[in-house]
Amino acid sequence: MSLDGRPGDRLEGPLPVTGNGVVLEDSNRPALAPMSSQRLRLIPNKDHNPDNYDDMELDFSPSIFTSLERFLPPSMLGMPRHDKVKFMTEILLKYLPHGERNRVQKHRDYRQKIISNYQVENFEKWVNEAKFRIMRPNTMNKYGAVLDDFGLETMLDKLMENFIRPISKVFFAEVGGSTLDSHHGFVVEYGEDRDADLGFHVDDSEVTLNVCLGKQFSGGELFFRGTRCDKHVNSGSHSEEIFDYSHVPGCAVLHRGRHRHGARATTSGHRINLLLWCRSSVFREMKKYQKDFSSWCGECLREKKERQCISIRATKRELLRREGESTA
Ligand SMILES: [Zn+2]
């Protein structure tokens, strides 16, 4: 579908067109105007197949960029993603109220701070130079270090108490989220000369915080496949349990430790993640006396529903039988 000549497609013009969604700062630019003076289309280009922005560090959700891309001026569609992101971010920022704009900027700064404040690399260098014997973080990772062993225990405890516990109390109450009382904190490294991927597993935690500290990498996606109790840890997954997540430096994932997951191979570059396994002694004690975990185990829940179905069917049959007897 060609939209040539529509106001929304014009790259220049005497007046900004209202209702177009974009107001131009200076509309009297020459034909080869810089990107910032180009306009969005009025009607999206439905034939255009937009890029995927999931792996980029963005100020807005990647899906917003994918959707907005269909409204880009035709000349921009073939541009590198980075240029398109720059243009679309400018537009999105222009339309945010002031408070919101500050929030986006603050988020951006905060992400950067998270990445630069955790001087993991220097830390590991120091460990190697000092010929410290690093305790490896878990049975599955060869590279990385336990942070609690290097004076970060108190800081991580505070992180758990002040941030993770309040959030987990709301989202993961059924696995002891409100009573988290100990942790195991470590960093893991992936990429060239490091671990490549991490097999499918559950964590020895009630709630896990996984922060991506950088740097430049591709691959390394997390794949989640449903939460399971000890008994059902090896059962199959259901289609609605399939969830994949791409890491963004400075962003974190919080999930149940029993949420089965793995990390795909980091195919290039170098990825560092901070893991904080949070545990609840109360939950672990109570678990010993429990048999039904249908409040959080996908398989226990499925079995419970199946039992209910069978019992309902049996009751129905019994009622029909009685009805048949009484009318006979
Ligand atoms: Zn179960």
TrEMBL record:
Matching InterPro entries: Oxoglu/Fe-dep_dioxygenase_dom (IPR005123), Pro_4_hyd_alph (IPR006620)
GO molecular function, one term: dioxygenase activity
Flavoprotein found in the keyword field: no
Basic and acidic residues bias (residue ranges): 1-12
Species this protein is from: Prunus persica (Peach)
Protein name per Swiss-Prot or TrEMBL: Fe2OG dioxygenase domain-containing protein
Top-rank lineage group of the source organism: Eukaryota
TM spans (from-to): none
Keywords tagged on the record: Dioxygenase, Iron, Metal-binding, Oxidoreductase, Vitamin C
Residue intervals of the Fe2OG dioxygenase domain: 181-280
Region called Disordered, residue ranges: 1-20
Cofactors demanded by this protein: L-ascorbate
